[in-house]
Amino acid sequence: MLAGDATLIPLLQRLAVRDVRVTLTSSLSVPSSIAPPPLVALADTCIDQTEDNRFLLPEDGHGRHKL
Predict the structure, then answer these.
(1) What's this model's pTM, rounded to 2 decimal places?
(2) Fewest beta carbons less than 10 Å away: which of 5, 19, 23, 54?
(3) Which among 2, 5, 4, 38 is positioned nearest to 22, based on CA atoms?
């Protein structure tokens, strides 16, 4: 799930009740209105796009990273 805002909290709460695992991808370096802490806390896994090399451009700005 791509983080959006607090309106997603009820959805993640319902998914948790059904034992559905959720991976949230967002940037934790943005205002809390985009990735509110309660939303992040409900996710089983959180991928911070500012810390994950898969989301960063190479230094020359071209090409792709090898995974």
Answers:
(1) 0.68
(2) 19
(3) 2
SS3 label, residue 23: strand
Residues 6+ apart with CB under 8 A from 44: 21, 22, 23
| Tens digit of each residue's pLDDT, the chain (67 residues) | 565 678 889 999 999 999 999 998 888 888 887 788 999 999 999 888 877 777 666 665 555 555 5
Total domains in the chain come to 1
User: CA-CA-CA-CA torsion for 1, 43, 27, 64, nearest 10 degrees?
Assistant: -60
Per the domain annotation, does 48 fall within a domain?
A: yes
Return d(Cα 31, Cα 33) in angstroms, integer: 5
